């Protein structure tokens, strides 16, 4: 579970609803000094499994200071974005089409795309459907295929629990499985994390969790886009979801720019937000004119 430091938007960040042809999505929209029209470009930030747009909240101020408009989004059924109860609504292709609709609704031309973990799989699916709306793709702690074996077991355990327990019961079960001192250090009494969990759609969690354990290797498809879409593979120096060595290998297969963030694990965006923001801003600046 991601643990953003706060759920309060920082100064200069607007919390609003983005209306698209495929529904309405909650976003955090950070603009540089002077407003969106003064931005060097626009970036769309896509969160991972059990996460939300707030996972990027500590990155928004440094990205705005670097001159970027950064828009973090809750996908359908995530936190403040509503979602239906039909499993088919959360198929990977449907989430990818949502992302394409979000880019169109932003009305900012071609955007820099960043996906964290599951959000990287959704982002990859979107660019494989249509790479035209994107200048670059950053895969943050998001691997080539299904998650590691022990993570598959954890996701299956959570999915099974969601079929027989309500969200509040599952939250308490998750807390109970952690050692008391670890649970207190990681979550403590933060009601905002519990509130976010309770607002997630259990159907969305079951379907996207299933995707994490069956995702095929699509690296060659992505690599085939070549110079049409520069790719950045970014991670921490340790990752239990996709081993860092596997991310290194994926970057080589893609001919991608590679960044490891010192002191970070699976969530560089919350572990080391300043350093992560600097790395992605540098990559975006190098490719802002790509494919123009």
TrEMBL record:
A GO molecular-function descriptor: hydrolase activity
Coiled coil: none
Domain of life, per lineage: Bacteria
Record InterPro entries: AB_hydrolase_1, AB_hydrolase_fold, Carboxylesterase_BioH
Residue stretches making up the AB hydrolase-1 domain: 44-146
Bias type Pro residues, positions: 1-12
Keywords in alphabetical order: Hydrolase
Pfam families: Abhydrolase_1
TM region(s), chain numbering: none
Positions of the UniProt region annotated as Disordered: 1-22
Protein name: Alpha/beta fold hydrolase
Species in which this protein is naturally found: Streptomyces lichenis
């Amino acid at each position: 579970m991601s643990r953003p430091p706060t759920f309060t938007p920082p100064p200069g960040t607007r919390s609003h609803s983005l209306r698209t042809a495929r529904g309405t999505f909650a976003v955090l929209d950070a603009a540089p000094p002077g407003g969106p029209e003064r931005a060097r470009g626009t970036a769309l930030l896509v969160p991972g499994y059990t996460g939300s747009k707030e996972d990027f909240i500590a990155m928004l101020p440094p990205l705005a200071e670097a001159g970027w408009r950064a828009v973090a989004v809750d996908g359908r059924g995530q936190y403040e974005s509503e979602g239906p109860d039909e499993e088919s609504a959360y198929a990977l292709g449907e989430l990818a089409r949502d992302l394409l609709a979000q880019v169109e609704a932003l009305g900012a031309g071609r955007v820099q795309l960043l996906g964290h973990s599951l959000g990287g799989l959704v982002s990859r699916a979107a660019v494989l459907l249509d790479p035209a709306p994107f200048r670059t793709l950053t895969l943050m702690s998001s691997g080539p295929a299904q998650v590691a074996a022990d993570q598959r077991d954890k996701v299956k355990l959570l999915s099974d629990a969601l079929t027989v327990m309500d969200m509040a019961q599952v939250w308490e079960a998750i807390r109970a499985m952690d050692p008391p001192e670890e649970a207190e250090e990681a979550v403590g009494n933060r009601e905002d994390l519990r509130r976010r969990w309770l607002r997630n759609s259990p159907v969305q969690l079951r379907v996207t969790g299933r995707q994490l354990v069956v995702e095929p290797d699509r690296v060659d498809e992505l690599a085939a886009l070549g110079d049409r879409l520069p790719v950045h593979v970014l991670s921490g120096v340790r990752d239990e979801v996709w081993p860092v060595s596997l991310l290194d290998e994926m970057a080589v297969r893609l001919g991608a720019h590679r960044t490891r963030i010192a002191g970070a694990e699976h969530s560089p965006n919350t572990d080391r937000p300043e350093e992560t923001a600097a790395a992605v801003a540098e990559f975006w600046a190098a490719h802002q004119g790509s494919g123009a």
